[in-house]
Amino acid sequence: MLNHMVEQTHLDAVFHALADPTRRAMLGQLAERELTIGELATPFSMSFAGASKHVKVLENAGLVSRTIRGRTHFCRLQAARLAEADAWLKRYERFWTERLDTLEALLRAEDEANAAVKASSKPTIKAPKK
Amino acid sequence: MLNHMVEQTHLDAVFHALADPTRRAMLGQLAERELTIGELATPFSMSFAGASKHVKVLENAGLVSRTIRGRTHFCRLQAARLAEADAWLKRYERFWTERLDTLEALLRAEDEANAAVKASSKPTIKAPKK
DNA sequence: AAGAAATTAAACCGATCGGTTGACAATCGG
DNA sequence: CCGATTGTCAACCGATCGGTTTAATTTCTT
Questions:
Q1: CATH level 3 topology of A3-84
Q2: A66-124: per-residue pLDDT in tens?
Q3: Domain-by-domain residue ranges, chain A?
Q4: If you measure CA to CA, which chain B residue comes closest to A10?
Q5: Where are the beta strands (DSSP E) in chain A?
Q6: Which residues touch strand D (CB under 7 A)?
């Protein structure tokens, strides 16, 4: 109830920034190391000016901060606004966890049925991703 | 490594759909009940056609599904694509939980200091999130 | 001091955005 | 059958988007 007005304008900028694959890829790069504008530009076969504009969009959305050292601009990831976006999405979490829970229950029942038949030792549990 | 190519095109559409406050508000409404185009339009003092376009954007992003009964179109929330967006954001979760963790550590240290003074029984251990 | 390197600024381009209006197509209730 | 309700479609509008090119600015190197 509090966060409705607070960062509504933030969310606009953040989601818009994330809606572009080039900018998402840039964030992916920045997740590993601090990078300059030029380093951000080269992998996309894009002009410096083009990359500069993308970085400015990310910067205005608060997703990237910039420190200028000499003639080169170093960009680094700023995750707080990503957390705000995540918080917004979490309001809808129950809508997909509900379905996943029932799916999980089905798979678990199936596994138990197999286990009962085979009475084997190692239950083949495969972690989803991480 | 798998999900990089899979729904890249989905993410474009989903984040773009979420970048508009009217559409986010529509999703908020749809989180409570199934709604018709007209019901979605009225709270925003917007023409039917305008709302229709927004709904189409949400539909093309896979965030809303539509069932037509007679002359009225009923829209309902479809959360799977929101889950995909959430999954993308989770790749960056550590960047904001890190900071929260250090903050938590500070608070925990403070608590323990207080507890030591009082010589209480239960060590207040709080699991990070999950 | 001269020139290369890193970046922004400005102008421009076609495409898309968010929104409207007006015309059209169904469908429902009398 | 008539008229109201519900919605789409197409055309249009000004604004913004993603991208380029060209020019300018600053800094580093020699």
A1: Arc Repressor Mutant, subunit A (1.10.10)
A2: 999 999 999 999 999 999 999 999 999 999 987 666 666 666 655 555 555 544 443 33
A3: 3-84
A4: B19
A5: 35-36, 64-69, 72-77
A6: A 16, 19-20, 22, 45-47, 49-50, 53-54, 57, 69-71; B 36-39, 48-49, 51-52, 55-56, 66, 71-73
